[in-house]
Amino acid sequence: MQLKNSYIKISKVTAFAIVASQALYAENYVAVEYLQYDENENRVSVSAPTLSASYDIGTDYTIKGDIVFDAVSGATPTWQPDTTSGASKRDNSGDYTYKNQEFDETRTAASLMLTTRFENRDELNTGVDISRESDFYGNTLSVEYLHYTDASHNQSINVGLSYSANEILSYDYDTASGASTKETSTSINVQAGVSQVLSESSLIKAEAFAISDDGYLTNPHALVVRDYNTADQKLTNENRPDTRVAYGANLKYITLLNDDISYKVNYRFYTDDWDINSHTIENDVYYAMNKQFTFGVGLRYYTQTEAEFYNGSKDYFTNQEFASSDERLSDFDAFTYKASVDFKQNDKISYNLGGAFYSQSTGLDATMITTGIKYRY
Amino acid sequence: MLKKFFYSLLFSSVLLLAADSAEENQTKIILNKLNMQDDKVYLIDFFASWCKSCKKELPLISKVHNAKLVEVIGINVDKKREDGEAFVKELELPFRVIYDEDKSFIEAFDPMGFPAMYYMKNGKILNVVFGAVDSVDKKIADDLKELQE
Amino acid sequence: MRLMIQIGVLTLTSLLFMGCSVIKEVKPWEKETLAKPIMQFEGLHPEVRKFESHVYFSKEATRGGNGVSGGGCGCN
Question: Within 13 Å, how many C-alpha atoms sit on residue A374's CB side?
Fold first, then answer.
């Protein structure tokens, strides 16, 4: 076609214009979100107000950040002396019961990410995450590079790397004083993926990841019973291996079912050298009823196998090096049922309300309520 | 055998010529619809309501048009014309807008990026700008100066 | 449950292979649908998604696959 031909002729002398293609503005916003999480039997309750913001600096940089304040209160189950059988805390002659141990905790977590876009519109994301609790300090640095493999930006590949350094206070249950020791752990996370636009209304993304954890990976609050019903019987801190290597893959697909309804499915496979394998399937459907209201429903299914050093009984562990009765390392599955509604008052202001019910086969049930307001400018 | 080959070659050439002339006709139709005066530089801006960059750039492009630096012709490529019309109304675009519902304009230009701006004169493309640009009004002024040189 | 996983894996694998054979080149101006908020992998609200991930991270023994950013917590 003539238009194209003349463009081609011209392109030789205006090559600069062609490389400056595909720049896009993101969206500047400030959002406040309030998140409430409550477990059954008055176990853990978390209130978490979050402030987040994103700002474009021209077309080449976007800076994004958020800060969340968690107030956690409640109780988490672990082995404890059974006071009804007459045992006191340090008396190893009595019986034990698996019951809730009370705790209160506050956590402040913040993250900052800078996106840099290059002339060919490839992206570099550099991020910092920090988490502060009275007994946990965590810092993470991450970099991720996204490269478009075609001019129309229909296919991209990405590689990412992060490094976390954590400080954990561990409490020695065996000593009468319950002295705490500062322990450390590190984590390296590597990820690579490919994203492909399949059509005007569908997109697929496949990723593989590897995680290597090193150091103190034990839950400082979880206890196990050793040598039950013998002269040596005692309640003591659990002990997990000090390395953990995990691999996994993630496959995501999103498509438009009709003009207003989208369907998204995400499958993740995970395996590690503690013998834990997991499968996660998440399905989400969004319905944009009109320009103002969008409704969402979701169903997530999760299943995992138990860690090789896990046992939930009080009469199992003797002198094994590694031992844990933390039921999060057990064999279980879980469902999450989600629903949400979004109301866009105008181009600048929108409100959202969401609810989710999470149910584990371990007996843990929880509700999550999220509500927020977003201001775009 | 040779005869068959010759005929098929002839047939393909006729088809190609027909396709070429169909494209040429289509180009003429497009240029007619753009209705541009001879010897005058125009800025053809392809945009859509779903394009966030367009929303940031269009007020600046309107400024350039109002300052009479160049005449802008906007081409809206929204799937639904009413979405495009609402967007044009919201931004109060001061220039002529063509609603490209059948995609004939954008397919003819076939830009490699979006949004897309074309500087045109006498039915020929002088320069192109693809993607979002910081301070697009300044960029247009600079480009026009360069084109005049 | 195993059946559910198998069906899921099978569906996604077939989608991937179907996808490979039906990839259609989408021009930059044809991305109206892909630009819709309901077509984003992270959902309508990345903050909510982050909160959910945090809950799963603290209540389940496995993680990964959702980008490399994000720190740990003393919750597991």
Answer: 23
Distance, in Å, from the CA atom of A246 to the CA atom of C61, rounded to the nearest integer, reads 11
Q: Residues of A numbered 328-367 whose beta carbons fall under 8 angstroms of chain C's beta carbons: which are they?
A: 328-329, 333-334, 336, 340, 342, 352, 354, 356, 358, 360, 364, 366
What is the interface size between A and C, counted as CB pairs within 8 Å?
Answer: 240
Picking from C70, C40, C33, C75, the residue whose alpha carbon sits closest to that of residue C55 is C75
ipTM above 0.90, yes or no: no
What pairing do the DSSP bridges indicate for beta strands B116-121 and A61-81? unpaired
Q: How far apart are CA A352 and CA C46, in angstroms?
A: 12
* Cβ A347 vs Cβ A312: under 8 Å: no
CATH number assigned to the domain comprising residue A356: 2.40.160.40
Q: Chain C closest CA to B113's CA: distance in Å? A: 5
pTM (global) more than 0.80: yes
What's the pLDDT score for residue A9?
A: 34
Q: What is the DSSP letter of A258?
A: S
Residue A193 tokens, joined: 């993926």
Domain ranges across chain B: 1-34, 37-148
The CATH fold of domain B37-148? Glutaredoxin (3.40.30)
Q: Is the pLDDT of residue A263 over 90?
A: yes
Question: What number is the average pLDDT over the span B62-76?
Answer: 94
- Give yes or no for a contact between B75 and B97, defined as CB atoms under 8 angstroms apart: yes
Count of beta carbons in the 10 Å neighbourhood of residue A168: 23
- Residues B111, B130 contacting (CB under 8 angstroms): yes
**Residue A3 included in any domain:** no
pLDDT at A98 over 70: yes
In this structure, are residues A55 and A376 in contact, taking their beta carbons and an 8 Å threshold? no
φ and ψ of A120, to 5 deg = -85, 10
For A226-262, write each residue's pLDDT tens digit: 988 888 888 889 999 999 999 999 999 999 998 899 9
Total domains, chain A: 1
